[in-house]
Design brief:
The complex is a heterodimer of chains A (about 120) and B (about 230). Helices cover about 85% and strands about 0% of the residues of chain A. Chain A has helices spanning about 1-45, 50-65, 65-70, 75-95, 100-115, 120-125. The chains are: A mainly alpha (about 120), B alpha+beta (about 230).
């Protein structure tokens, strides 16, 4: 009986931790997405340097998360997000008028990384 | 992490269901949940090792999940008769009083040839001598012979055999097992006398020394000491 309860407790802990992990990661990704959109809004409104500054802050935050993401997320996805961040930063710095495609790509990769952790019918099956 | 957890649970339950439907003959001495866990764990452990881009947690979470499932399932099996029957089924009587049970044979999908092969493995050639042949829930076939075919026990023969008792190893490959020496109620003085009587210079010269409850001793020197 003790072993059975141990098993059930371990399962409950795993479930709780994995759901907490999913919501923690989603919250962080949403925060990064907000920063990216804010950066895009500022840039399009003519405040390019402020936009770049906010994006750099978002990149800093993403890099801070690296120790955590490397443990839980496929490394390919992490690298894709990092590449997309720098691609968008490069587009903003170069004053490229068509920086929205780089932004959209970054948003897509962030969304995909978050989806990797969120248990839905689609992701589970 | 959550996805890996849910996927592991789903695969575990699916495998349990399918293996249960396949029947107990597939198991061979493992309980159903043990077999499923054994089949899955080997592969899961290797996945993060083969691809460095996959976090180790993708291997660890399913393994811990399976471990917890196995603990829970075996615990549930012990505490609930209904769950145990549902998970592991019940033993199948394939032969009753020397007669093969066709319906049961069909149910467990075992041919007569296979049954005969299993019986031959138990040195049984005549089905008429078998009172019961039972396919257990772990897939092993156990047989009970007709009363007149069963080997006579010592008591039935009216004999009084010598009981050498339980063997306790005192020296193993030149190492004295002091706990065992104490357990049999002897001391080093007694041991030294025994060694002397058997021409052993020290404990290191002895390959094996076993003490039986009856007081008998099995003794063997190391090859180079002989």
């Amino acid at each position: 009986m003790k072993k059975m309860f141990c098993g059930l407790i371990i399962l409950a802990c795993l479930l709780a931790l994995s759901l907490y992990n999913a919501s923690f990661f989603k919250k962080n990704i949403e925060m990064l997405q907000e920063q990216v959109l804010e950066s895009s809004r500022l840039t399009q409104g003519g405040e390019r340097s402020e936009g770049i500054e906010i994006l750099e802050r978002a990149i800093g935050k993403w890099q801070e998360l690296d120790a955590y993401t490397r443990v839980f997320i496929h490394h390919d996805s992490i690298d894709s997000v990092t590449d997309a961040f720098y691609e968008y930063l490069g587009a903003l710095r170069s004053g490229d008028d068509d920086d929205t495609s780089a932004r959209d790509r970054l948003m897509y990769h962030l969304e995909a990384a978050a989806a990797q952790e969120m248990p839905t019918m689609g992701s589970v099956f | 992490m959550a996805i890996v957890f849910f996927r592991t649970l789903i695969i575990f339950l699916t495998l349990i269901t399918l293996m249960r439907l396949l029947g107990k003959r597939q198991l061979r001495e493992l309980e159903l949940s043990e077999l499923v866990v054994s089949v899955m764990i080997a592969d899961l452990g290797a996945t993060p090792l083969q691809d460095m881009g996959i976090p180790l947690f993708y291997g660890l979470i399913p393994i811990v999940t399976l471990f917890a499932c196995e603990l829970s399932f075996s615990g549930l099996g012990l505490s609930s008769v209904f769950f145990r029957k549902l998970m592991y089924g019940t033993p199948s009587f394939l032969i009753v009083n020397g007669k093969i049970q066709e319906r049961e044979m069909r149910r467990v999908r075992m041919s007569v040839d296979e049954l005969l092969e299993e019986l031959r493995g138990k040195e049984i050639l005549d089905i008429n001598t078998v009172q019961y042949a039972i396919l257990e829930t772990d897939g092993t076939l156990n047989t009970v012979l007709m009363p007149e075919e069963r080997p006579a026990s010592v008591a039935q023969l009216g004999l009084a055999p010598e009981d050498c008792g339980y063997p306790v190893i005192l020296i193993e490959d030149g190492v004295l097992l002091e706990k065992n020496l104490k357990h049999v109620g002897r001391d080093k003085n007694w041991l030294n006398k025994q060694l002397e009587a058997r021409n052993a210079g020290s404990v290191k010269d002895v390959f094996i020394m076993i003490f039986y409850d009856s007081g008998e001793i099995y003794f063997s020197l190391k090859d180079k000491q002989k």
